[in-house]
Amino acid sequence: MATIWAVAEISESVPTKLSLELATLARQLAEAAGGESRTVLIGGGVGEAAQTVADYSAGVMVAPAELADTSVPLAAVVAPRLAALIEQHKPDVVLCSASGDGKDIAGLLVGLTDMPVLVNVSGVTWGDGGPVVEMSTFGGKLITHSAFTGGRGIVVVRPGTVTEEKAAQPGAIETVEVTPSAELPQVKVVDSVAEAGAAAPIEEARVIVGAGRGVGSADGLHLVEDLADALGGAVGATRAVVDSGWIGYGQQIGQTGKIVKPALYVACGISGAIQHKVGVQTAGTIVAINRDADAPIAEFADLMVVGDLFEILPPLTAAVRARTSR
């Protein structure tokens, strides 16, 4: 009987959206395998977050670990404790987030547990004795399917792989004490830079307005920001916009950026190359605004508006604001 674990992450005592997706995925895989699932929370202030996670999980394991030194990377605290729990309970599959911290945790787990790892995963199903994962390669032009030879390992899952769904009933919450499996070498943080974030993180936003090369300049980006503000959403961008320095890397969507799954994605001046498509193709509704009727984005957009975004966005934004102010 297979045991599936999801490793949750919290931000200001609230579980991230991807953590709830992982809890849902772990539950679905366990049901397909005829096994059991748990979501594991390790760190400080996890008690409150566990209540939310329990709504999506068949069971929650909480291991409090207060950070005495905030300069210590989160993964250095979580991974040794998680490795100790893995040694005790021997789960078959451990699902980690494809976030910065999640990737660090998965990397450390490989060294601490000798479990194999599959990364950059955009789909997971249960196959013959283990998970079968879907991954995109060559800029999204090729989809591969892989499995562990022994059926057991770590899977690093990208956002939007599944939609978070509450369980039929909340899972039981178990609090455990755990001793780290190893003392990792101390890492000294000599400097840190905080990048200004968007009004709403693109991974969490229900509405995203994306900017492409067609916005022309940083000034053109203001039109996109105004529409996003009117819609109560976040601003995303293609790699070309980020490379031009008009917006931060944290807002980049696509193969080399973030995978998002908003209810509505409005693409402004975006051609829709495959590298960007893989970042938005799971959105609920895609609306594209582009002067080129033959742009690749027309092939997968739900609505294609052919025209100049500089003429379309201002009245569109005004109409949205007028409607929402009623």
Q: How would you describe the overall organization of this protein?
A:
With 326 residues, the protein is α/β, with parallel strands linked by helices. The chain folds into 2 domains: 3-175, HUPs (Rossmann fold); 207-324, Rossmann fold, CATH 3.40.50. Helices cover 30% and strands 26% of the residues. A 9-stranded mixed β-sheet has the order 9-8-7-10-6-1-4-5-11, sandwiched between helices. A 5-stranded parallel β-sheet has the order 13-12-14-15-16. Helix 5 (218-231) runs parallel beside helix 8. It is elongated, with a radius of gyration of 21 Å. 46% of the residues are buried.
CATH C-level label of the largest domain? Alpha Beta
Low-confidence segments: none
Instruction: Please estimate the helix content.
Output: 25-40%
Strand order of the largest sheet: 9-8-7-10-6-1-4-5-11
Counting helices, strands and paired strands, the structural category is alpha/beta
Average pLDDT confidence is: 89
* Distance, first to last CA: 56 Å
Strand content: 25-35%
The largest pleated sheet is described as: 9 strands, mixed
Classify the oligomer.
single chain
- In CATH, the homologous superfamily of the largest domain goes by the name HUPs
Question: Would you spell out the secondary-structure blueprint of this structure?
Answer:
Blueprint: E1 3-7, E2 10-11, E3 14-15, H1 17-33, E4 36-43, H2 46-54, E5 59-64, H3 74-89, E6 93-97, H4 100-113, E7 117-126, E8 131-137, E9 142-147, E10 153-157, E11 172-175, E12 207-211, H5 218-231, E13 234-237, H6 239-243, E14 264-268, H7 274-280, E15 285-290, E16 303-306, H8 309-324
Parallel strand pairs: 1-4, 1-6, 4-5, 5-11, 6-10, 7-10, 12-13, 12-14, 14-15, 15-16
Antiparallel strand pairs: 2-3, 7-8, 8-9
Helix pairs in contact: 3-4, 5-8
